[in-house]
Amino acid sequence: MHIRTALTRLVRGAVLTTAFIGLSAPNTVAAADGSAASSGSGGFVPAASVPADQLRHLDRPVPLNQYSHHSAGFRSSRAAAAPAANDEADLRKECARHAKEARSAKGWLKSRFESCQKRPYDLVLRNKKGTESIGRLWFDMWTLGFTYDGSRRVDYVASIENIRVQTVPSEDATKWRIGQRFSYSIDGSSSDPDAKVIAPKVQGRDELLGLWDRKPHWNLTYTSPDKGAQYSKGNQQLVSTLVTMDLTADSPNASSYSQVGAYYSNVRFDYAGPVAGKYKGTVFTQAHVVLTMDRKDPAVRESALHIYDALHRPERTFPSFVGKSVPGEKEPLHRLVNKDKQDANRKKSIAECEKVWGKYDGTDLQCDEYPFASTKEGSTKGDDRYSVRLIDGDDNEAGGRRLNDVYINNRVLDGDPFYVKVT
Hints:
Residues 338-420 form the Deoxyribonuclease NucA/NucB domain. The chain is elongated and about 90 Å long. Strand 1 and strand 2 (36-38) form a beta hairpin. It has helices spanning 86-96, 99-102, 209-214, 301-312, 339-357, 393-409, and strands at 28-30, 36-38, 43-46, 62-63, 108-109, 114-126, 133-147, 153-167, 177-186, 204-208, 217-223, 239-251, 254-270, 281-284, 290-293, 333-334, 365-370, 387-392, 417-422. It has two domains: 28-284, no CATH class; 290-422, no CATH class. Strands 3, 4, 5, 6, 7, 8 and 11 form a seven-stranded antiparallel sheet that branches. Strands 10-9-12-13-14 form a five-stranded antiparallel sheet. It has a three-stranded mixed sheet with strand order 15-19-16, with helices on one face. It is built from six helices and 19 strands. The longest helix is centred in the last third of the chain and has 19 residues, at 339-357. It is of the alpha+beta class. The model is unreliable at 1-39 and 70-76 (pLDDT under 50).
């Protein structure tokens, strides 16, 4: 029996219709994380690239709503932030506990349905000649991503928050701008024919710091149209998509800063049918899917012990040979949905069980195999990196249901990777 868990999300607000004002592409150089940041003598540059002695007069960040320029008298009348939806608030809390992963370009992936990036920025404004530091800009960039089990859709909630500034008297931070621009591309080599994505009407936002401070959040939704059920004809309507976001920072008195690929996510839309549980859906493909089993769990104690031995003590498993290793913990397994090939795996594994333990008809025992018959690493792969063991039949079937739950709850399709962890 399949246990199907519905992963539903509330529909978020409509995409903002903020006008996007051209993000021109300045000269760029590779940043430490592989993205690109602007080069040139002047403009915003990462603070880490500026000698410490040139930052001594720019080391006291002021919240933007408290910043006052000698000629502008600026105060940000920040509006009260709208309360975040529960799933967004919960994801932010978890994101903070994974700060190292969350600050990377791809962010932290909680699951195939939720991702989160919190990336802090510390930029120094150099004058046009690049001879003097005249301002400093601190802010946090958040990007929350949500895909859906049951819908060909991905939502992003992007924001610029916690803006702080400091300037010399001749520079005015009220005229500084930050820009975000999203875009997408389709990987034709891993998509089915006629792959399409519908982008939101507005994919970019470029505004003064004060506008970001008053309204930090904006939403985007990408969808992929389908032609109805085609999976019985071998067409799962797969659309493999790369969504990226570029960041800019500008001052009227210097050249633009640009970071290409400040955020990215790999998204797959599908209409795979019953093999995936809900007939269609969307996932973040870079999220690790893990089957976790506990050797102390009475329902799957024998299954878990068998897998643990195969992964950590392969010398105790059959077939036996010197130097044996079994994949699944560090090397991923890959789902196999072809029933004939699954049956071939089971047939070979049963033959190995009978070779070692003899006939077990009439007992409560079953031949447990790892890697599983429903993986491409099963016993017929040809490298003998598998294990079989006679275990209690109820235990074996419970372990099979756990595996199927992982497939269904994570939209694991044919060839998708996943890992196994036994505690």
